[in-house]
Amino acid sequence: MEDNTTPIQNKIANSGLITIDLEELYHKGERILFDIKDQLFRGMILREKDFREFVKLHDWSQYQNKNIAFVCSADAIIPTWAYMLLAVSVEPFANRYVFGDLQILETILFNDALQKINAEEYKDVRVIIKGCSDVHVPVSAYVEITHKLSPYVKSIMYGEACSNVPIWKRK
């Protein structure tokens, strides 16, 4: 009996497609929303002397390697210097800190990670940006990776190798 079977080939593995999984860029450090509303006098006014005392006595080391989003959820006018004072206080400890909510923090964390990608390494290749993740990847990260890679790659697709959506192709 003759063996006419041909070995099974993984066409996806042999296709030359490179998959980029943005989930791998997720910073695993804890996210903290740091709301200064509790430091306001009568819930409305930031008094400099009291605020400076709070900043001086606060244990900033508890934010070691964490990601901090500074906000004030109270309807109050907070001077810019207050957020700057928070920034210099948490600087020696935090991984990253921003002014804004947790969504802004997440966007900036992904943007920081995307800036480290050398787009030239993807020159003339076909890229799939993986679509499904176990962690939330902001839409802004997908837009930024597209912006970063499009001058270099042959094509960009979204999804999985077996089921993708064409996004861009060099002419």
Description:
With 171 residues, this protein is an alpha/beta fold. The chain folds into 2 domains: 17-27 and 108-169, no CATH class; 31-94, no CATH class. 27% of the residues lie in helices and 21% in strands. The protein is built from 4 helices and 7 strands; from the N terminus they run E-E-H-E-H-E-H-E-H-E-E. The strands form 2 sheets. It has a 4-stranded mixed sheet with strand order 1-5-6-7, with helices on one face. It is elongated, with a radius of gyration of 23 Å.
How does the SSE layout of this entry go?
Elements: E1 17-20, E2 31-35, H1 48-57, E3 67-71, H2 80-90, E4 96-99, H3 102-115, E5 126-130, H4 139-149, E6 155-160, E7 163-169
Parallel strand pairs: 1-5, 2-3, 3-4, 5-6
Antiparallel strand pairs: 6-7
Helix pairs in contact: 1-2, 3-4
What are the main properties of this structure?
171 residues, alpha/beta, 4-stranded mixed sheet, 3-stranded parallel sheet, 4 helices, elongated
Report a brief summary of the structure.
The chain has helices at residues 48-57, 80-90, 102-115, 139-149; strands at 17-20, 31-35, 67-71, 96-99, 126-130, 155-160, 163-169. By secondary structure, it is an alpha/beta fold.
Gap between N and C termini, in Å? Answer: 50 Å
Strand order of the largest sheet: 1-5-6-7
Domain module count: 2
Strand portion: 15-25%
Main beta-sheet annotation: 4 strands, mixed
**What's the tally of helices?**
4
Q: Radius of gyration over alpha carbons? A: 23 Å
Order of helices and strands: EEHEHEHEHEE
- Helix-residue proportion: 25-40%
Shape: elongated
Please state the structural category: alpha/beta
Q: What's the β-strand tally?
A: 7
Mean pLDDT: 92
Low-confidence stretches: 9-14
